[in-house]
Amino acid sequence: MELNPFDTEQIGIKTLEKSLMKTRSARSIKIGLPKETSNDERRISLTPGGVSILAANGHEVIVEKNAGIDAHFSDSEYAEAGAEIAYSAEELFSKSEMIVKVAPPTKTELGWMQPGQILLSALHLGHTSHDFLKTLIDKGVCAIGYEYIKSEDSEFPIVRMMHEITGSMAVQIAAHYLENSSDGQGIMLGGISGIPPATVAILGAGITGEYAARTALGYGSQVFVMDNNLTLLRRLENALDRRIITATANHQYLSTALEFADVVIGAAMTEGERAPCWVTEPMVEAMKPGSVIVDTVIDQGGCVSTSVPTTHSNPVFRKHDVVHYCVPNIPSNVARTATYALNNVIVPYLVELGDTAGIEDCLWKNTALRNGAYIYKKHLTKKGLAEQFEMPFRNIEMLIASQI
């Protein structure tokens, strides 16, 4: 297969097509892709290329009109790939066995969900409510969350893809808000000959922190990375050839680093839990006027005490003369790239679902999707969610094995 080196976004999907279009699934699934309506969400979970793979495997894909428009995928592209175009979300929900979307269902969408449907979407732990979970449980929906999908190698493939994008974008965003046109300090991240670079403090040495550090180093910044996990700090130091400065995220080091930082990237998190709040309001007060905070974990509660969620249409606010950028879904601003990333992870799972006898069989055989399920057979299957919302909890392996 000859590839155009400049057509980079297509390489992954062509490789995916080559490996997945050879077989036909054992059963057909009706998969619905609604248009996202919440929080400036511009992504969609499947590309036309992904739809063509699913159609080749015998599945029916229903795409709501204009669902891919913000990621620059047209209805005609989806139709040519084999999708049916639905002219209303309600029609799509009524026809589909499985709903695949990016953001969690809205209150209206929850009302359209059918008993026994499968939901594959993000959960957004920082904004989940008791009523949301109870509605899904009462309807008997099998809900699988992007944040929970974990493969046998302990990787979170969808989360990792989005974190790579988020980390890279966070530094790009910060550079913009340091400019005079954004009422910033009027400095460059990288500096020039004879003028020191800006200082970037990254909180968290996970995937988001790593890609933020890589991007900041690419700009030429001085980069500090702080975490309480020394193993992660060592790994990142080695991966980046010790070009970063690392420190444990205790009060002393955090306070000192934030006083000198031009940019703070908040990326401290633990998978499946609320983000730890490392930065206090007095620390923010002590920061330079015009410095920038990008809190990338605001969808999990944020790791800066002064952070509150913002939107792509109104992304920043100032507090203590520090610019705060707290948009929960940063990858949505590069919707086409993010859609390709989602598609390349999700399509193989959907093909595998079609190769099994049903969702129960699939969850038993597929570790990643089983880990991803947070509601199954009208039971909450994640202990952390059960404790947070004081709801009953059942182990999913036991539910499947007992055939309840």
TrEMBL record:
UniProt cross-references to InterPro entries, sorted A to Z: Ala_DH (IPR008141), AlaDH/PNT_N (IPR007886), AlaDH/PNT_NAD(H)-bd (IPR007698), NAD(P)-bd_dom_sf (IPR036291)
One BP annotation, GO: L-alanine catabolic process
SUPFAM superfamilies: Formate/glycerate dehydrogenase catalytic domain-like, NAD(P)-binding Rossmann-fold domains
Annotated Alanine dehydrogenase/pyridine nucleotide transhydrogenase NAD(H)-binding domain residues: 178-326
Keywords: Oxidoreductase
Keyword Cell division on entry: no
Segments passing through the bilayer: none
Superkingdom field: Bacteria
Boundaries of every Alanine dehydrogenase/pyridine nucleotide transhydrogenase N-terminal domain copy: 32-166
Gene Ontology CC annotations of this record: plasma membrane
EC code: 1.4.1.1
Molecular function per GO: alanine dehydrogenase activity
Enzyme class: oxidoreductase
Entry's family note: Belongs to the AlaDH/PNT family.
Protein name (Swiss-Prot/TrEMBL): alanine dehydrogenase
Source organism: Rhodohalobacter mucosus
